[in-house]
Amino acid sequence: MPEGIEKTDKGSSTSSYIVRDVVRGLYEGRYVAGQRLVEPDLMSHYNVGRSTVREALKELSSDGIVVLAAFRGAQIRKLSREEAANLFSITEVVLGLAARQAAQKIETPGARESIIELFRSIEEYRDEEGRFEFLRRRNRYFRQLVTISGNEEIHRILPRLQVHLIRNRLSVPSVERIEGYRKITEAVLSGDGAHAEQIARAYVAKTAAFIVPHFPE
Fold first, then answer.
1. Which residues on adjacent β-strands are paired with residue 37?
2. Which of 84, 120, 144, 157 is the most exposed place for a label (fewest CB within 10 A)?
3. What is the DSSP letter of 128?
4. What is the average pLDDT score of the chain?
């Protein structure tokens, strides 16, 4: 059984744990686009019954991570180039709004200090720490940005967008990524909402231009 697994009273892992582990596996490369998720294999790996696995697959399907097809079972969803471009377009708008609203509320007690601290954790990242570690720090940074914005709807939307954009193993070089987050941080700290939105959207657009062409048509 995977380390740290959650258990029910019957000793089985919960479906929510399986969902989180599949998502983490996408970040780490244990699960890849197009991969089939075979129920008996999942039951054995997570030491759970068929109903728990099916519940997890249903949740992953509702999030758009897995495709369920009759007689073919479950498969990690493959994104086309157009689908990836559409997701980046939505992410650009959503993250831009988060940056705008965070800038407008940056004088909220503790907000300025928290975003500086989380940017520093990104700034201190080194490639040898692994891609998942960078993504973990990046996600904490974005979650705090959204928390400062006070927009609960973005909290619901953004994680679902992000998980789809990790399917392609390419990423913007770390120096450019860190510089992008530096600009977003400085813009948010300035308190200028329009400028913060512009900078955040420009960063997402630049990332899309680098990654989207590598998705299959």
1. 74
2. 120
3. G
4. 87
> How many other C-beta atoms are found inside a 10 Å radius of the C-beta of residue 103?
27
Q: Whole-angstrom Cα distance, residue 20 to residue 30?
A: 13
Domain count, the chain: 2
3 assigned to some structural domain: no
Spatial neighbors of 148 by CB under 8 A, at least 6 apart, are: 101, 102, 105, 106, 108, 111, 114, 115, 188
Give the whole-angstrom CA distance, residue 147 versus residue 130.
26
- Per-position DSSP letters for 2-40, written without gaps between them: -TT--B-TTSPBPHHHHHHHHHHHHHHTSS-TT-EE-HH
Distance of CA 36 to the CA centre of its chain: 21
* Phi, psi angle pair for 74, to nearest 5°: -105, 145
Element (H, E) at 132: helix 131-149
Mean pLDDT value of segment 83-93? 92
Checking if the pLDDT of 37 tops 60, the result is: yes
pLDDT digits (tens, 9 = 90+) for 2-34: 433 344 434 345 899 999 899 888 877 888 888
Mean pLDDT of 31-58: 93
172 backbone dihedrals φ, ψ, rounded to 5°: -65, 140
The domain that holds 25 is classified in CATH as 1.10.10.10
Q: Are residues 95 and 38 in the same domain?
A: no
